[in-house]
Write a structure and sequence with these properties.
It is a single chain. The protein has two domains: about 130 residues, 2-Layer Sandwich (Alpha-Beta Plaits), CATH 3.30.70.270; about 210 residues, Heat Shock Protein 90 (2-Layer Sandwich), CATH 3.30.565.10. The strands form three sheets. Strands 1-3-4-2-5 form a five-stranded mixed beta sheet. Helix 6 packs antiparallel against helix 7, helix 8 packs parallel to helix 9 and helix 9 packs antiparallel against helix 10. The chain is built from ten helices and twelve strands. With about 375 residues, the protein is α+β, with helices and mostly antiparallel strands.
C-alpha cells in the first residue's frame, strides 16, 4: 500500500472528492484494507425539515469548511477526504503510510477521528456522530455499506464506553460509602452504639459491592431489550433505608438533612440491589444539587395497586422545563457546577423502564427538583 499511496499523494493534497470518486479510488488501488473515518452531522437533516433546504445548505457549507480545515490539520498529505453535496456524511480514508512507512493502525484511526470531530464541533458548533472501519478493495462498489458499518462500529464503541463508565460509576458509590464510614470509625469520639451501626452499614455496603461486581455484566445495563426476572422482588422500606444509609456520608459532608417519611409495608417487583442502585442515584443527585446545609425529603405513596410512588424533593435551583427530558440521556447533565458523569439518571430511567416502571421530574415545593419514581408493586 505504501508505494501506491505515495505515487498518488500529491494529487490528493487537501482535495475534497465525491464519495463515488473515493470509492472508485479505493477499489482501483487495492492493497491492504484502508481505515475509513466517517463523521455525520445529524443537525443537517433536522435543519432541512425545520427551516428548509436553503438553511440546511448554509449549514452544510459551514460543516464542509470545518471538515476540510480539520482534515488538513490532522491527516497526512496523501490521505483522502470526500463529501457529497446535500449529504450529512463526511468521509476520510487513511491511505497514506505513517512516518515509519507502515499502514495506519486502529490507534491512528481513532486518534485522527477524535481530533477531526473535536475540531468540527469547536469550529462549526455542531454535534457530530462518528465511527470508523476498514474498507477492502472488493467493497468499493458498496461504499454506502462501508459508511453504515463505520457508524455502527462507532455506536458500539460508544455503548461499550458508556457501559464501563456506568460500571465504574456504580462501583464508586458503595466504595465511597464504605470509606466514609471507616474513616469515621477511626475516630475515637463516637459512642459504641453509633460505632456498631456504622460497622453494620459498612458491612452491608461491602456485600452489596460484591453482588454488584458478580452480577454487573449479567445486568447488561445498556441492553434495552433485557427484562428483569419476573420473580425479582424487594421490600421497599428495606431498600429505601439502605439507600438513605448509603447516602448519609455525602449528605453529612454537605450538611444536608435527609427526611424520610414513614414507608408503608409494600413489596415491589425489583430486586433489592437494583432498586437501591436506582434510589441511591436519585438521592445522591438531590444531595449534590440541593443547597448546602439544606434538606432532601423522601416519601412513598401507594396511589394505586400497580405502583408505589417514591418522591424525592430537593431545595436546589431546580431543573428548567426544557432540560427535564434531556437529563435522562446518557452522558447529559443539567446546568450545574456539581461534579457528575451524566450516567446516573440515565441508568435510573433505563432500569425502572426495564422493570415496568417510570421516572419523572418536575418542580419541587421546596424550590428545587422533584423526582417521582413509579416502582411496580409485587
Amino acid at each position: 500500500m505504501a508505494s501506491a499511496t505515495s505515487s498518488r499523494a500529491p494529487e490528493r493534497r487537501g482535495a475534497l472528492q465525491t464519495l463515488a470518486a473515493l470509492a472508485s479510488d479505493l477499489e482501483r488501488d487495492g492493497g491492504d484494507a484502508v481505515p475509513v473515518l466517517v463523521v455525520r452531522i445529524p443537525e443537517l437533516e433536522r435543519m432541512a425539515w425545520r427551516r428548509g433546504l436553503r438553511a440546511a445548505r448554509m449549514l452544510e457549507r459551514t460543516a464542509t469548511a470545518a471538515f476540510s480545515a480539520a482534515a488538513s490539520r490532522v491527516l497526512r498529505a496523501g490521505d483522502a477526504i470526500a463529501h457529497d453535496p446535500g449529504s450529512d456524511v463526511f468521509v476520510a480514508a487513511l491511505v497514506a503510510p505513517t512516518r515509519a512507512g507502515a499502514a495506519p493502525v486502529p490507534i491512528d484511526a481513532r486518534s485522527a477521528l477524535a481530533r477531526i470531530a473535536a475540531t468540527m464541533e469547536a469550529t462549526a458548533r455542531l454535534d457530530v456522530v462518528t465511527g470508523w472501519t476498514t474498507s477492502a478493495r472488493a467493497e468499493g462498489a458498496k461504499f454506502d455499506a462501508v459508511i453504515e458499518r463505520a457508524l455502527q462500529c462507532g455506536a458500539q464503541e460508544r455503548e461499550r464506553y458508556a457501559f464501563f463508565s456506568a460500571l465504574g460509576h456504580e462501583l464508586r458509590t458503595p466504595l465511597a460509602s464504605i470509606r466514609g464510614y471507616l474513616e469515621t470509625l477511626l475516630e475515637d469520639t463516637i459512642d459504641a452504639p453509633t460505632r456498631r451501626r456504622f460497622v453494620r452499614i459498612a458491612y452491608a455496603e461491602s456485600m452489596r459491592l460484591s453482588r454488584l461486581v458478580e452480577g454487573m455484566f449479567e445486568i447488561s445495563l445498556l441492553d434495552l431489550h433485557a427484562t428483569f426476572p419476573s420473580r425479582s422482588s424487594a421490600i421497599l422500606a428495606v431498600a429505601l433505608g439502605g439507600a438513605v444509609d448509603a447516602c448519609s456520608a455525602p449528605a453529612a459532608a454537605r450538611g444536608v438533612e435527609i427526611e424520610l417519611a414513614p414507608v408503608p409495608e409494600v413489596a415491589v417487583a425489583v430486586d433489592v440491589d437494583r432498586l437501591m442502585m436506582v434510589l441511591i442515584n436519585v438521592l445522591d443527585n438531590a444531595i449534590k444539587h440541593g443547597r448546602e446545609n439544606g434538606r432532601v425529603k423522601v416519601r412513598v405513596e401507594l396511589a394505586d395497586t400497580r405502583n408505589a410512588l417514591v418522591t424525592i424533593d430537593d431545595d436546589g435551583p431546580g431543573i428548567p422545563a426544557a432540560d427535564r427530558e434531556r437529563i435522562f440521556a446518557l452522558g447529559e447533565r443539567g446546568p450545574t457546577r456539581a461534579r457528575g458523569t451524566g450516567i446516573g439518571l440515565a441508568l435510573v430511567r433505563l432500569m425502572l423502564e426495564r422493570a415496568g416502571g417510570r421516572v419523572e421530574v418536575d418542580a419541587s415545593p421546596l424550590g428545587g427538583a422533584r423526582f417521582t419514581l413509579a416502582v411496580p408493586r409485587r
